[in-house]
Amino acid sequence: MKRALVVILGSLAAVGTVTRAQMADSHALTPETPTASASVPLQNMTRPVARVNGAVLTEMDLLREIYTIFPYAKQHGGVPKAMEADIRRGALKMIEFEELVYQEAKRRGMTIAPERLTKAEAGFRKQFETEQQYKEFVQVEANGSAQAIRVKIKRSLLIEDLLAIEVTNKSGVTLAEAKAFYDKNSEKFRLPETYALQTITIMPPVRPSRQEPDPPPPTPEQWKRMKVRADEALHQAKATKNYEEFGILAEKISEDDYRVMMGTHKNVEAANLPPEVLEAASKLQIGEVSDLIKAENAYTIIRVNAHNPARMPSFNEASKNLELELRRQKTERTRQELDAKLRKNAKIEEL
User: Fold this and answer.
1) Can you tell me the distance from the alpha carbon of 66 to that of 22, in angstroms, rounded to the nearest whole number?
2) Cβ distance 349 to 51 under 8 Å?
3) Boundaries of CATH 1.10.4030 in the chain?
4) CATH number of 12-179+322-350
5) Ramachandran sector of residue 330 (left: φ over 0; alpha: ψ -120 to 50; beta: rest)
6) What is the pLDDT of residues 261-310, one digit of tens each?
7) C-alpha distances in angstroms, 284 versus 56, 259, 300?
8) What is the pLDDT of residues 303-330, one digit of tens each?
9) Which of 164, 250, 255, 299 could bridge 263 with an S-S bond, Cβ 3.0-4.6 Å?
10) Which CATH architecture has domain 191-207+215-308?
């Protein structure tokens, strides 16, 4: 079943640390049923948390939305305490909005064709591995009533349809709008200088300490021993002829975490490279291997696989991502406006 994308509307101040990237809808029925937790005992799952024009929203509704915003809650036994209040507040605003949208759809007399509802119900049931799992879900979610599940699916489709009318269809971006934005904000699209590198790094022994969580700089004696290993590594690196050979060598002898990826660093911005590494990279041709580079308490050898100078992409290059971003922004604004409109004359009680 298609899920419309719903975000918290008009509640950024309340949401606080919850970002919109974490927001998603909960109106679509899913096989995942929230379970009791230490903070929400089983007997409290039906406890009302809000009334929207008389319609009761329960702790289960709220918990499902919390799981949507923070999908790791079940695995980690709940939401981290530092985030709990913000996420709960954001989730409450979300389910209130969805109920308002549903009520507006009913007020307009919107309907769902029987064949579409039947198809959506069949698609939902296919998400369960066995018929028994579906029956257990129906028992927990709707006291064993398949008709109640059908009503919930219909509710989801009505929310989806009204959002399509009031948000999706009003959030289109024309080519002229995209071009005007590009011309006015062209510097935002400038691509930075980047390098694609492979590295072999020889590092000092790590000496963890409670007082000094970061390893101290190598001693003169450690530098000497590292230099011996680095010289041998350089000899072998210079003998490699391509990406694969250098990568296999990195897997064998490099001492940093990138060894498990054949020493590969993809498209690193030049500004983020250590100055010593950037200086060396800027003097190499594609496919060349550097001499030893002493940087950040280690010896490093780099192979340059690609160099992309900073440049301004054309409108045609930028247009796809630009239109997606402008549509996202317009969709967000349109949803905020719809939320404010629906709340204006609504009676909402948070319990």
Assistant:
1) 10
2) yes
3) 12-179+322-350
4) 1.10.4030
5) alpha
6) 999 999 899 999 999 999 999 999 999 999 999 998 899 999 999 999 99
7) 67, 22, 15
8) 999 999 998 888 887 777 788 888 888 9
9) 250
10) Roll (3.10)
